[in-house]
Design a protein that fits this description.
GO terms for molecular function: RNA binding. Helix content is 21%, strand content 32%. It is α+β, with helices and mostly antiparallel strands and 73 residues long. Strand 3 and strand 4 form a beta hairpin.
Amino acid sequence: METKKITIDRPFITLGQLLKEEAIIPTGGAAKWYLKENTVLVNDEADDRRGRKLYPGDLVTLPDHSQLTIESK
C-alpha cells in the first residue's frame, strides 16, 4: 500500500483540517462526526480529536487503510 505525502507550509495541521483538505469530509464541521464513526490512527494509535496537531513525520491511517504522511515544505 502506498503512503500519500501531504506537504504543509506551516508548523502543523490539525486532523480536522487534513481530512477536509484531502476531501475525506465535506466541511470542517463534519470532522467531529467522522472521527466518532470511524477509527483513524495517528502514529498507530486511535485518535478522535479533530484538533489533534499533526507535525512533519506523523503518519495518519484512514479506515480504508490508506495512509497519509505529513511533510514540511
